[in-house]
Protein backbone atom coordinates (compact mmCIF):
# COMPACT_ATOMS: atom_id res chain seq x y z
CA UNK A 1 0.00 0.00 0.00
CA UNK A 2 1.26 3.43 -0.89
CA UNK A 3 2.25 5.47 2.16
CA UNK A 4 0.29 8.41 0.75
CA UNK A 5 -3.00 6.52 0.99
CA UNK A 6 -4.71 6.58 4.35
CA UNK A 7 -5.58 3.18 5.94
CA UNK A 8 -9.30 4.10 6.02
CA UNK A 9 -9.22 4.53 2.24
CA UNK A 10 -7.34 1.30 1.66
CA UNK A 11 -10.33 -1.07 1.75
CA UNK A 12 -12.05 1.00 -0.95
CA UNK A 13 -9.09 0.44 -3.27
CA UNK A 14 -8.69 -2.65 -5.47
CA UNK A 15 -6.74 -5.16 -3.36
CA UNK A 16 -3.00 -5.10 -3.88
CA UNK A 17 -1.80 -8.40 -5.41
CA UNK A 18 0.73 -8.76 -2.58
CA UNK A 19 -2.15 -8.80 -0.11
CA UNK A 20 -3.95 -11.43 -2.20
CA UNK A 21 -0.76 -13.47 -2.05
CA UNK A 22 -0.55 -12.97 1.74
CA UNK A 23 -4.10 -14.28 1.99
CA UNK A 24 -2.86 -17.68 0.79
CA UNK A 25 -0.46 -18.05 3.77
CA UNK A 26 2.65 -18.70 1.63
CA UNK A 27 4.75 -19.99 4.56
CA UNK A 28 2.21 -22.67 5.45
CA UNK A 29 1.90 -23.45 1.75
CA UNK A 30 5.61 -24.28 1.49
CA UNK A 31 5.22 -27.23 3.89
CA UNK A 32 2.02 -28.33 2.14
CA UNK A 33 3.71 -28.23 -1.28
CA UNK A 34 6.76 -30.06 0.01
CA UNK A 35 4.80 -32.93 1.60
CA UNK A 36 2.55 -33.14 -1.47
CA UNK A 37 5.61 -33.30 -3.73
CA UNK A 38 7.14 -36.02 -1.57
CA UNK A 39 3.88 -38.01 -1.75
CA UNK A 40 4.10 -37.80 -5.52
CA UNK A 41 7.83 -38.62 -5.69
CA UNK A 42 7.59 -41.77 -3.53
CA UNK A 43 4.74 -43.18 -5.62
CA UNK A 44 5.66 -46.23 -7.72
CA UNK A 45 4.41 -44.54 -10.92
CA UNK A 46 5.86 -41.29 -12.20
CA UNK A 47 3.46 -39.14 -14.22
CA UNK A 48 4.78 -36.99 -17.09
CA UNK A 49 6.63 -33.96 -15.70
CA UNK A 50 3.98 -31.43 -16.69
CA UNK A 51 1.18 -33.46 -15.08
CA UNK A 52 3.19 -33.88 -11.88
CA UNK A 53 3.93 -30.15 -11.86
CA UNK A 54 0.25 -29.35 -12.38
CA UNK A 55 -0.79 -31.68 -9.54
CA UNK A 56 1.59 -29.92 -7.14
CA UNK A 57 0.42 -26.53 -8.44
CA UNK A 58 -3.17 -27.58 -7.68
CA UNK A 59 -2.22 -28.68 -4.17
CA UNK A 60 -0.58 -25.27 -3.64
CA UNK A 61 -3.58 -23.38 -5.03
CA UNK A 62 -5.98 -25.50 -2.96
CA UNK A 63 -3.96 -24.75 0.19
CA UNK A 64 -3.96 -21.07 -0.77
CA UNK A 65 -7.73 -21.14 -1.21
CA UNK A 66 -8.20 -22.77 2.20
CA UNK A 67 -5.90 -20.15 3.77
CA UNK A 68 -7.82 -17.30 2.12
CA UNK A 69 -11.20 -18.64 3.26
CA UNK A 70 -9.81 -19.18 6.74
CA UNK A 71 -8.71 -15.52 6.87
CA UNK A 72 -12.04 -14.40 5.44
CA UNK A 73 -13.91 -16.17 8.22
CA UNK A 74 -11.50 -15.31 11.03
CA UNK A 75 -10.88 -11.63 10.32
CA UNK A 76 -12.41 -10.64 13.69
CA UNK A 77 -10.26 -13.18 15.53
CA UNK A 78 -7.08 -12.21 13.68
CA UNK A 79 -7.62 -8.58 14.65
CA UNK A 80 -7.37 -9.54 18.33
CA UNK A 81 -4.07 -11.39 18.10
CA UNK A 82 -0.66 -9.70 17.75
CA UNK A 83 0.62 -12.53 15.52
CA UNK A 84 -2.17 -12.04 12.95
CA UNK A 85 -3.33 -8.43 13.39
CA UNK A 86 -1.33 -7.24 10.37
CA UNK A 87 -2.96 -9.66 7.92
CA UNK A 88 -4.71 -7.90 4.99
CA UNK A 89 -8.27 -8.15 6.39
CA UNK A 90 -7.78 -7.15 10.05
CA UNK A 91 -5.35 -4.42 8.96
CA UNK A 92 -8.10 -2.98 6.71
CA UNK A 93 -6.14 -3.29 3.47
CA UNK A 94 -8.81 -5.43 1.80
CA UNK A 95 -12.57 -5.89 1.99
CA UNK A 96 -13.98 -9.27 3.06
CA UNK A 97 -15.89 -9.88 -0.17
CA UNK A 98 -12.67 -9.79 -2.22
CA UNK A 99 -11.15 -12.40 0.11
CA UNK A 100 -14.24 -14.62 -0.18
CA UNK A 101 -14.37 -14.41 -3.97
CA UNK A 102 -10.63 -14.99 -4.23
CA UNK A 103 -10.76 -18.04 -1.93
CA UNK A 104 -13.77 -19.68 -3.56
CA UNK A 105 -12.48 -18.98 -7.07
CA UNK A 106 -9.03 -20.34 -6.33
CA UNK A 107 -10.47 -23.44 -4.64
CA UNK A 108 -12.84 -24.31 -7.50
CA UNK A 109 -10.11 -23.66 -10.06
CA UNK A 110 -7.58 -25.89 -8.25
CA UNK A 111 -10.04 -28.81 -7.93
CA UNK A 112 -11.17 -28.65 -11.58
CA UNK A 113 -7.60 -28.39 -12.86
CA UNK A 114 -6.55 -31.34 -10.68
CA UNK A 115 -9.42 -33.42 -12.08
CA UNK A 116 -8.56 -32.56 -15.67
CA UNK A 117 -4.77 -32.88 -15.40
CA UNK A 118 -4.37 -35.77 -12.93
CA UNK A 119 -7.49 -37.72 -11.97
CA UNK A 120 -10.82 -37.16 -10.24
CA UNK A 121 -9.95 -39.14 -7.09
CA UNK A 122 -7.10 -36.68 -6.46
CA UNK A 123 -9.52 -33.81 -7.19
CA UNK A 124 -12.07 -35.19 -4.70
CA UNK A 125 -9.37 -35.52 -2.03
CA UNK A 126 -8.23 -31.95 -2.74
CA UNK A 127 -11.80 -30.67 -2.43
CA UNK A 128 -12.24 -32.67 0.79
CA UNK A 129 -9.06 -31.17 2.29
CA UNK A 130 -10.16 -27.60 1.46
CA UNK A 131 -13.67 -28.16 2.83
CA UNK A 132 -12.34 -29.93 5.91
CA UNK A 133 -10.00 -27.04 6.71
CA UNK A 134 -12.61 -24.36 6.11
CA UNK A 135 -15.82 -25.96 7.40
CA UNK A 136 -14.72 -28.54 9.98
CA UNK A 137 -11.66 -26.76 11.43
CA UNK A 138 -12.24 -23.03 10.89
CA UNK A 139 -16.01 -22.74 11.16
CA UNK A 140 -16.95 -25.64 13.42
CA UNK A 141 -14.08 -26.64 15.73
CA UNK A 142 -11.68 -23.76 16.23
CA UNK A 143 -13.83 -21.60 18.46
CA UNK A 144 -15.65 -24.48 20.19
CA UNK A 145 -13.22 -27.09 21.48
CA UNK A 146 -9.64 -27.56 22.62
CA UNK A 147 -9.55 -30.57 20.30
CA UNK A 148 -9.71 -28.14 17.34
CA UNK A 149 -6.24 -28.84 16.02
CA UNK A 150 -6.36 -32.56 16.83
CA UNK A 151 -9.26 -33.16 14.45
CA UNK A 152 -8.50 -30.16 12.23
CA UNK A 153 -4.97 -31.48 11.76
CA UNK A 154 -6.40 -33.96 9.25
CA UNK A 155 -6.72 -31.11 6.74
CA UNK A 156 -2.96 -30.57 6.70
CA UNK A 157 -2.35 -34.31 6.42
CA UNK A 158 -3.99 -34.61 3.01
CA UNK A 159 -1.19 -33.31 0.67
CA UNK A 160 1.05 -36.44 0.55
CA UNK A 161 -2.08 -38.52 0.00
CA UNK A 162 -3.18 -36.24 -2.84
CA UNK A 163 0.33 -36.26 -4.36
CA UNK A 164 0.39 -40.07 -4.34
CA UNK A 165 -3.14 -40.42 -5.75
CA UNK A 166 -2.37 -37.81 -8.46
CA UNK A 167 0.48 -40.08 -9.61
CA UNK A 168 -1.14 -43.50 -9.22
CA UNK A 169 -4.90 -42.92 -9.27
CA UNK A 170 -5.41 -45.05 -6.16
CA UNK A 171 -4.85 -45.22 -2.40
CA UNK A 172 -2.20 -47.43 -0.77
CA UNK A 173 -0.80 -48.14 2.73
CA UNK A 174 2.25 -45.82 2.48
CA UNK A 175 0.36 -42.57 1.75
CA UNK A 176 -2.11 -43.47 4.51
CA UNK A 177 0.82 -43.78 6.94
CA UNK A 178 2.13 -40.40 5.69
CA UNK A 179 -1.34 -39.02 6.43
CA UNK A 180 -1.16 -40.48 9.95
CA UNK A 181 2.33 -39.03 10.47
CA UNK A 182 1.22 -35.45 9.77
CA UNK A 183 -2.05 -35.97 11.64
CA UNK A 184 -0.15 -37.02 14.80
CA UNK A 185 2.57 -34.37 14.28
CA UNK A 186 0.08 -31.49 14.17
CA UNK A 187 -0.97 -31.40 17.88
CA UNK A 188 2.57 -31.24 19.36
CA UNK A 189 3.56 -28.74 16.65
CA UNK A 190 0.67 -26.35 17.32
CA UNK A 191 0.49 -26.85 21.06
CA UNK A 192 4.18 -25.97 21.46
CA UNK A 193 3.40 -22.70 19.62
CA UNK A 194 0.21 -22.09 21.60
CA UNK A 195 2.12 -22.41 24.88
CA UNK A 196 4.20 -19.32 24.22
CA UNK A 197 1.45 -17.31 22.47
CA UNK A 198 -1.18 -18.41 25.01
CA UNK A 199 -2.09 -14.84 26.02
CA UNK A 200 -2.96 -14.09 22.37
CA UNK A 201 -5.34 -17.05 22.19
CA UNK A 202 -6.82 -16.25 25.60
CA UNK A 203 -7.44 -12.61 24.59
CA UNK A 204 -9.18 -13.77 21.40
CA UNK A 205 -11.13 -16.41 23.37
CA UNK A 206 -9.86 -19.27 21.22
CA UNK A 207 -10.10 -22.47 23.31
CA UNK A 208 -6.58 -23.73 22.63
CA UNK A 209 -5.44 -26.41 25.07
CA UNK A 210 -3.12 -24.16 27.17
CA UNK A 211 -6.05 -21.76 27.66
CA UNK A 212 -8.64 -24.38 28.64
CA UNK A 213 -6.55 -27.09 30.34
CA UNK A 214 -3.46 -25.19 31.51
CA UNK A 215 0.25 -25.38 30.76
CA UNK A 216 1.10 -28.66 32.48
CA UNK A 217 -1.71 -30.60 30.81
CA UNK A 218 -0.64 -29.21 27.42
CA UNK A 219 2.99 -30.17 28.02
CA UNK A 220 1.86 -33.68 28.97
CA UNK A 221 -0.26 -33.97 25.83
CA UNK A 222 2.63 -32.76 23.65
CA UNK A 223 4.86 -35.51 25.04
CA UNK A 224 2.15 -38.18 24.79
CA UNK A 225 1.36 -37.30 21.17
CA UNK A 226 5.04 -37.36 20.23
CA UNK A 227 5.14 -41.12 20.99
CA UNK A 228 2.54 -42.39 18.47
CA UNK A 229 3.86 -39.76 16.05
CA UNK A 230 7.35 -41.30 16.30
CA UNK A 231 5.83 -44.78 15.90
CA UNK A 232 3.98 -43.69 12.75
CA UNK A 233 7.18 -42.11 11.41
CA UNK A 234 9.10 -45.36 11.91
CA UNK A 235 6.31 -47.64 10.63
CA UNK A 236 7.18 -47.59 6.88
CA UNK A 237 10.54 -49.25 7.61
CA UNK A 238 9.45 -52.45 9.48
CA UNK A 239 6.43 -52.70 7.16
CA UNK A 240 8.79 -52.89 4.19
CA UNK A 241 7.44 -49.71 2.61
CA UNK A 242 10.78 -47.87 2.99
CA UNK A 243 14.42 -48.88 3.26
CA UNK A 244 17.08 -48.75 5.95
CA UNK A 245 18.17 -45.22 5.01
CA UNK A 246 14.73 -43.90 5.83
CA UNK A 247 14.49 -46.10 8.93
CA UNK A 248 17.72 -44.73 10.41
CA UNK A 249 16.81 -41.12 9.56
CA UNK A 250 13.29 -41.52 10.99
CA UNK A 251 14.64 -43.10 14.19
CA UNK A 252 17.21 -40.33 14.73
CA UNK A 253 14.84 -37.49 13.88
CA UNK A 254 12.01 -38.93 15.98
CA UNK A 255 14.32 -39.55 18.94
CA UNK A 256 15.27 -35.86 18.76
CA UNK A 257 11.60 -34.91 18.69
CA UNK A 258 10.69 -37.10 21.69
CA UNK A 259 13.69 -35.79 23.69
CA UNK A 260 12.68 -32.20 22.96
CA UNK A 261 9.07 -32.98 23.90
CA UNK A 262 10.48 -34.45 27.14
CA UNK A 263 12.31 -31.17 27.83
CA UNK A 264 9.01 -29.34 27.29
CA UNK A 265 7.32 -31.80 29.69
CA UNK A 266 9.72 -30.97 32.54
CA UNK A 267 9.74 -27.21 31.92
CA UNK A 268 7.72 -25.31 34.49
CA UNK A 269 7.92 -21.81 33.00
CA UNK A 270 4.74 -19.78 32.88
CA UNK A 271 6.13 -16.74 31.03
CA UNK A 272 6.71 -16.88 27.27
CA UNK A 273 10.20 -15.42 27.73
CA UNK A 274 11.25 -18.55 29.69
CA UNK A 275 9.75 -21.05 27.27
CA UNK A 276 12.91 -21.88 25.34
CA UNK A 277 12.17 -25.65 25.15
CA UNK A 278 8.74 -24.90 23.68
CA UNK A 279 10.17 -22.49 21.10
CA UNK A 280 12.92 -24.97 20.25
CA UNK A 281 10.41 -27.80 19.79
CA UNK A 282 8.23 -25.63 17.57
CA UNK A 283 11.19 -24.75 15.33
CA UNK A 284 12.44 -28.34 15.31
CA UNK A 285 8.99 -29.73 14.47
CA UNK A 286 8.99 -27.87 11.13
CA UNK A 287 12.52 -29.07 10.36
CA UNK A 288 11.52 -32.59 11.46
CA UNK A 289 8.70 -32.90 8.96
CA UNK A 290 10.81 -31.51 6.10
CA UNK A 291 13.72 -33.86 6.93
CA UNK A 292 11.49 -36.92 7.41
CA UNK A 293 9.79 -36.53 4.04
CA UNK A 294 13.07 -35.68 2.32
CA UNK A 295 14.58 -38.88 3.78
CA UNK A 296 11.67 -40.89 2.42
CA UNK A 297 12.20 -39.51 -1.08
CA UNK A 298 15.98 -40.03 -0.97
CA UNK A 299 15.46 -43.57 0.29
CA UNK A 300 12.95 -44.30 -2.49
CA UNK A 301 15.17 -42.92 -5.26
CA UNK A 302 18.44 -44.37 -4.01
CA UNK A 303 16.85 -47.71 -3.20
CA UNK A 304 15.08 -47.88 -6.56
CA UNK B 1 -6.79 13.06 -10.82
CA UNK B 2 -6.68 12.91 -7.03
CA UNK B 3 -4.04 10.91 -5.23
CA UNK B 4 -6.64 8.26 -4.39
CA UNK B 5 -7.69 7.90 -8.03
CA UNK B 6 -4.05 7.64 -9.08
CA UNK B 7 -3.57 4.80 -6.60
CA UNK B 8 -6.69 3.01 -7.92
CA UNK B 9 -5.39 3.23 -11.50
CA UNK B 10 -1.90 2.08 -10.44
CA UNK B 11 -3.29 -0.97 -8.68
CA UNK B 12 -5.67 -1.82 -11.53
CA UNK B 13 -2.78 -1.67 -14.01
CA UNK B 14 -0.56 -3.79 -11.80
CA UNK B 15 -3.28 -6.42 -11.36
CA UNK B 16 -4.21 -6.42 -15.04
CA UNK B 17 -0.56 -6.97 -15.99
CA UNK B 18 -0.24 -9.82 -13.50
CA UNK B 19 -3.51 -11.37 -14.67
CA UNK B 20 -2.30 -11.24 -18.28
CA UNK B 21 0.86 -13.14 -17.34
CA UNK B 22 -1.12 -15.70 -15.33
CA UNK B 23 -3.61 -16.25 -18.17
CA UNK B 24 -0.76 -16.63 -20.65
CA UNK B 25 0.89 -19.16 -18.34
CA UNK B 26 -2.40 -21.03 -17.98
CA UNK B 27 -2.82 -21.29 -21.76
CA UNK B 28 0.71 -22.69 -22.10
CA UNK B 29 0.06 -25.11 -19.22
CA UNK B 30 -3.18 -26.35 -20.81
CA UNK B 31 -1.36 -26.90 -24.09
CA UNK B 32 1.38 -28.91 -22.36
CA UNK B 33 -1.19 -30.93 -20.37
CA UNK B 34 -2.99 -31.77 -23.62
CA UNK B 35 0.26 -32.90 -25.26
CA UNK B 36 1.13 -35.03 -22.21
CA UNK B 37 -2.34 -36.61 -22.13
CA UNK B 38 -2.17 -37.44 -25.83
CA UNK B 39 1.27 -38.97 -25.21
CA UNK B 40 -0.15 -41.16 -22.42
CA UNK B 41 -2.90 -42.49 -24.67
CA UNK B 42 -0.69 -43.33 -27.66
Can you walk through the features of this model?
The complex is a heterodimer of chains A (304) and B (42). Helix content of chain A is 74%, strand content 0%. Chain A has 304 residues and is mostly helical. Chain A folds into two domains: 14-171, Orthogonal Bundle (Tetracycline Repressor, domain 2); 172-304. The radius of gyration of chain A is 20 Å and the shape is flat. The relative contact order of chain A is 0.11. Chain B has one domain (1-42). In chain B, 93% of the residues lie in helices and 0% in strands. The N and C termini of chain B lie far apart (59 Å). The A-B interface holds A 2, 4-5, 9, 13-17, 48-51, 54, 57, 116-117 and B 3-4, 7-8, 10-12, 14-15, 18, 29, 32-33, 35-37, 39-40.
Distance between the termini of chain B: 59 Å
User: How would a textbook summarize the main sheet of chain B?
Assistant: none
Order of helices and strands of chain A: HHHHHHHHHHHHHH
CATH H-level superfamily of the largest domain in chain A = UbiA prenyltransferase
Number of strands of chain B: 0
Catalogue the unreliable spans of chain A: 1-7
Structural class of chain B: mainly alpha
- Evaluate the radius of gyration of chain A: 20 Å
What structural class do helix, strand and pairing data of chain A support? mainly alpha
What is the 3D form of chain B? Answer: rod-shaped
The coarse overall form of chain A would be flat
Whole-number mean pLDDT of chain B: 93
- The number of distinct helices of chain B, counting runs of at least 4 residues, comes to 1
The CATH architecture of the largest domain in chain A can be named as: Orthogonal Bundle
Which whole number gives the mean pLDDT of chain A?
A: 93
